[in-house]
Write a structure and sequence with these properties.
This protein has helices at residues 3-19, 36-53, 70-74, 77-80, 98-106, 130-133, 176-195, 212-224, 253-258, 277-288, 297-303; strands at residues 23-25, 32-34, 59-62, 66-68, 87-90, 116-122, 136-138, 142-151, 164-174, 201-205, 228-233, 242-251, 260-262, 269-276. By secondary structure, the protein is α+β, with helices and mostly antiparallel strands. Helix 2 crosses helix 10. The two termini are 35 Å apart. The model has no long low-confidence stretch (mean pLDDT 94). It binds zinc ion.
Length: 305
C-alpha cells in the first residue's frame, strides 16, 4: 500500500467516526465533542485501569486541566516543549480599555492585543499537578492513581493528536529502585490489560518531542537510558501506529523541582504509567468496528458494555 493509500485509509477512519457521530468535529482543529457511546468505552477503560491499580495505590486523585503558570517553569516543560504550551490570557485592563476592546470587536480587528497573561496555564501532562501537592518529606513511598488531563497545542486532523486528552495514571514516588520497579512492572501489566481488549501492543523505547536542536540530544539521552517505554499498537492501515500507554521513569527530576524529599534527605524519585484513554478507545473502534454492540463478547464484558 502506498503512503497515499495509508493517508486515505486514516482519513476514511476519521470520516467514519464523525459520520457515525461517535465524535463530532468542532470549529477548533483537534477538538471534538464526544458521544455517550465514546464515553461509555472510556468509562470501561478507566474501570479496568482502576482495577489493575487497586491493590497498590494508597490514594486516588482527579487532577485539574488548569494549573498555575509556574508549574510549566518548575517542571521544565516550557524549556523543553515551548511549542506545545497553552498559557491563559485574560482581559485584566478594566473599564478604561473596554471601549478599545469593543471597537476592535466591532471592526473585526485584533481584540487579542487587549488581553494580558494571567497566572494560569493549561496542564501539559497528566500527572504534573500531583508533584507540587506532594511537596515536603515523604515518610513512606506513595502510589497514587491519578485521573489527569492535558492540553498540547498541536492542531491537526490526526485523531491520535487531540488538543485536550485524558491520561489515567498510576504514579510512584519514593526510592530509585522503587521507581525502576514501577516502570518495569507496569510495562507488563499495561500490555496484558490492552491485550485483554484485543489490542496487541509492543513495548518500544521512546523519547518525548523535545524542541529544537538541543532537544535532539535530550531525546537521545532519554532513549539511551530507556526512561520512556511506550506500548504501541499497530492498527495500520486504519490508524497510524500509536502509543496507547507510556511508562516513564523521571529519576529525581520532580523530587528536586518540587521539593519532595525522602526521609534520608535525598530528593524522591518518581515514575508513572499513563493510559491514553481516548487513544485506547480509538484503537478499539479501529480494531473491532464502529458498533460496540458488535464487538467480541469478552471485550464487551471487560468494558462493562
Ligand atoms: Zn505521568
Amino acid at each position: 500500500v502506498s503512503s497515499d493509500g495509508l493517508e486515505e485509509e486514516r482519513a476514511g477512519f476519521r470520516d467514519a467516526l464523525l459520520g457515525a457521530r461517535i465524535l463530532l468535529a468542532s470549529d477548533a482543529k483537534g477538538v471534538y465533542l464526544r458521544s455517550a457511546t465514546f464515553e461509555a468505552v472510556v468509562a470501561g477503560i478507566d474501570r479496568l485501569v482502576s482495577e489493575a491499580a487497586s491493590e497498590e495505590v494508597d490514594d486516588r486523585l482527579y487532577l485539574p486541566l488548569v494549573v498555575a503558570r509556574s508549574l510549566l517553569e518548575r517542571s521544565g516543560f516550557l524549556a523543553s516543549f515551548p511549542d506545545l504550551v497553552g498559557a491563559i490570557w485574560g482581559f485584566l485592563a478594566g473599564e478604561a480599555s473596554f471601549a478599545e476592546l469593543l471597537a476592535a470587536l466591532d471592526s473585526q480587528g485584533d481584540w487579542t492585543s487587549q488581553l494580558e497573561a494571567t497566572e494560569l496555564a493549561l496542564c501539559p501532562a497528566g500527572c504534573h499537578p500531583l508533584y507540587p501537592a506532594l511537596r515536603g518529606v515523604l515518610h513512606k513511598e506513595r502510589r497514587v492513581e491519578a485521573f489527569g488531563q492535558a492540553f498540547r497545542h498541536e492542531p491537526s486532523n490526526d485523531l491520535a493528536r487531540m488538543l485536550t486528552f485524558r491520561q489515567h495514571e498510576v504514579v510512584y514516588v519514593g526510592s530509585p529502585q522503587g521507581a525502576v520497579a514501577h516502570r518495569d512492572g507496569w510495562v507488563a501489566r499495561a500490555k496484558s490489560l490492552l491485550g485483554g481488549l484485543g489490542l496487541d501492543t509492543e513495548p518500544v523505547v521512546a523519547s518525548d518531542p523535545f524542541f529544537g536542536r538541543l532537544g535532539a540530544l535530550l531525546a537521545s539521552q532519554q532513549e539511551d537510558e530507556a526512561l520512556k517505554i511506550e506500548l504501541v499498537a499497530n492498527l495500520a492501515p486504519r490508524v497510524a501506529p500509536m502509543a496507547l500507554a507510556s511508562v516513564n521513569c523521571h529519576r529525581d527530576h520532580f523530587g528536586r523541582a518540587f521539593g519532595i524529599v525522602r526521609a534520608n534527605d535525598e530528593p524522591a524519585h518518581s515514575a508513572c504509567v499513563g493510559f491514553g484513554v481516548e487513544r485506547i478507545a480509538l484503537a478499539l473502534f479501529a480494531a473491532h468496528g464502529l458498533e460496540p454492540r458488535a464487538w467480541p463478547g469478552s471485550v464487551r464484558e471487560r468494558l462493562g458494555l
